[in-house]
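Appendix B. One record, verbatim.
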Amino acid sequence: QAELDQILALEPSDERSAKLNELAGRAPLDLALFSDSIFRVGDLTSLERQGIVMFLTMRIRMLKDPGEIMDVISRSPLMEESKFREQAALALATVTGFAEGRKLAASLPADSPVRREVESQLAKFAGSADPQSFIREVGKPGGDELLKTHGHDFIMSWSSKEPRTALEWVDKLPAATEAEKEVLMPGAFLGWTMNDSLQASKWLASYPEGNLRDQMVFRMVTSLCITGDSGSAAQWTESIRDPAIKAKALEQPGIYKKR
């Protein structure tokens, strides 16, 4: 703190910016205390602020103690910075895993941007690193609410690695209503079509008819139009039964329209 006070006593300059950045990047450092102290200063230049945020963002990812990470998350004004907030949440997810991180996040104010970001990053981390940890929580009391609030984050993350498994899990999930499936599945399916349209189209071809299938066909059409396969896009469009979705598909740029 004494060293920080000395630096802040200097007039804003390149020298002060360099000293602040050096201090922000040095270990050991109480990130919560440091950020709280430094952001109370009224004359920080935008360059100084950017540099401090950058160095402290790197530092938060180095922490291994869940308590220390939560201290930063709950106390640091840096959590107002979206990039830092994301990295702090990811640091917690990496150290604790989904279930334990969710318990710690419950201590944050309900419906606050910080808590939403932390829980969102926890769900994304579960999708990429340990899908079963999220699935187990969905199977517990209150799991239907978890699916509603963070199912999309989880499925989008999981489907980027295992699209078929992720989509089929949602499709067979008793707790998921048809409306919830329409929120969770089409976006994940779009990602699959962009990465492996052949396998995605094979899976979709045998999917039962209905509004959910039409929604996913629309994503297939979108993907095919992006990649320039307007002929295939037109063929898929013909299989859409819902008039509104079909009309929307026909509006895709580059789609071949039958005359």
